[in-house]
């Protein structure tokens, strides 16, 4: 699907979506890291009926495979994030809307099923508050505070101007046109979690956690969940892969709050591996963009449905019927 998307995308758009930071070591390692684990399937279990449903922060979902926040969907489809939202909703999943979205939050919300809003803590705290309040007013179920980007990672592949339409919204979120107040605030601390919750009343998940001690600090500061992620290899190159960081984080806080994971997840077996490592759900990013570029909303739905079907098949072969039956005993290695 990535190759099909590359054939239809503007080269600058493809490079922006596909690029990683530095020499792209973390980017390259991510998919293979899931494959370093090995499964220990149970046998002689009744798997005549397998269910992938779950309840996540009070929201019932058909699948634990969610759509991660990714920027600038108008480069992939004329409807941008609206098409993505329709596809995710049709799959019975949940969309995390990027703070670099290229359609207005109200338009996306009208097309979406359950959705959360990504938030960056900006130098301009009023701008951060406006984004959070607009999301709450539009019906977001949670905020996802992304904390692994105090500064933007350098991506050598991203050199050409992006093919974004010139309007007020895209100028506001564009890479080169934002004023100093719109940059991420590198002084942000754990207090931002409580501040966002008090402002909106919404649960706040923290995205970009790779360390168990950081996960503990986030929960102590009021986080309703943590997302284990190295930002798709787009921030600190050579950061540990999610597949190898997840277990420690889940062990530390996974009985208290939902732990989610993203980064390099490409198959239903990857999803099963993540759940066995302690994730409650996973998010996928670039594959959603490739599906959107190739076939719009229907492509996004088909991608998520296929991943969920693969998960169901893998669960049956591993001897588990529900997500709650997936445990660490299913894995060994690396």
Query: How many domains make up the 3D coordinates?
Result: 1
Strand content: 5-15%
Radius of gyration: 19 Å
- In the CATH hierarchy, the third-tier topology is known as TIM Barrel
**What does the average pLDDT come to?**
95
Give me the strand/helix succession.
HHHEEEEHEHEHEHHEHEHEHEHE
Q: Main β-sheet, in a few words? A: 8 strands, parallel
Q: Say which CATH homologous superfamily is assigned.
A: Aldolase class I
**Tally of separate helices:** 12
Silhouette: globular
Specify the structural class: alpha/beta
Q: What is the end-to-end distance?
A: 29 Å
Architecture per CATH nomenclature, i.e. the level-2 architecture: Alpha-Beta Barrel
Residue runs with pLDDT of under 50 for 5 or more positions:
none
Under CATH at level 1, the class stands as: Alpha Beta
Count the E strands.
12
Query: What is the helix fraction of residues, given as a range?
Result: 40-55%
For the largest sheet, list the strands in their spatial order.
4-11-10-9-8-7-6-5
Model description:
By secondary structure, this protein is an alpha/beta fold. The chain has twelve helices and twelve strands. The chain has helices spanning 2-8, 11-18, 25-34, 81-90, 105-111, 125-138, 168-173, 191-200, 212-220, 242-253, 268-276, 286-318, and strands at residues 38-39, 54-56, 59-61, 65-67, 95-97, 115-119, 143-146, 204-209, 225-228, 259-262, 281-284, 331-332. The protein has an eight-stranded parallel beta sheet with strand order 4-11-10-9-8-7-6-5. The longest helix has 33 residues, at 286-318. The chain is globular, with a radius of gyration of 19 Å.
């Amino acid at each position: 699907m990535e190759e099909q998307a590359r054939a239809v995308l503007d080269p600058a758009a493809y490079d922006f979506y596909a690029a990683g930071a530095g020499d792209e070591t973390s980017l390259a390692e991510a998919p293979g890291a899931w494959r370093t684990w090995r499964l220990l399937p149970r046998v002689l279990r009744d798997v005549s009926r397998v269910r992938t449903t779950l309840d996540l922060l009070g929201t019932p979902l058909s699948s634990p495979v969610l759509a991660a926040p990714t920027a600038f969907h108008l480069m992939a489809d004329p409807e941008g994030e609206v098409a993505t939202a329709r596809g995710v909703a049709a799959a019975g999943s949940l969309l995390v809307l990027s703070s670099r979205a290229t359609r207005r939050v109200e338009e996306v919300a009208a097309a979406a099923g359950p959705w959360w809003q990504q938030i960056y803590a900006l130098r301009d705290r009023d701008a951060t508050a406006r984004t959070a309040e607009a999301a709450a007013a539009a019906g977001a179920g949670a905020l996802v505070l992304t904390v692994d980007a105090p500064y933007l990672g350098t991506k050598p592949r991203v050199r050409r101007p992006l093919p974004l339409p010139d309007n007020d919204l895209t100028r506001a979120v564009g890479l080169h046109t934002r004023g100093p107040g719109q940059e991420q605030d590198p002084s942000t601390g754990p207090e931002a979690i409580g501040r966002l919750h008090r402002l909106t009343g919404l649960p706040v998940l923290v995205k970009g956690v790779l360390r168990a001690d950081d996960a503990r600090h986030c929960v102590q500061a009021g986080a309703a969940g943590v997302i284990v992620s190295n930002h798709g290899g787009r921030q600190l190159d050579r950061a540990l892969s999610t597949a190898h960081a997840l277990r420690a984080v889940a062990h530390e806080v996974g009985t208290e709050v939902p732990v989610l994971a993203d980064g390099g997840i490409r198959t239903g077996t990857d999803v099963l591996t993540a759940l066995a490592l302690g994730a409650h759900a996973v998010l996928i990013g670039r594959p959603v963009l490739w599906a959107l570029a190739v076939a719009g909303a229907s492509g996004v739905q088909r991608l998520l449905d296929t991943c969920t079907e693969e998960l169901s098949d893998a669960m049956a072969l591993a001897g588990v019927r529900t997500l709650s039956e997936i445990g660490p005993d299913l894995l060994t290695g690396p």
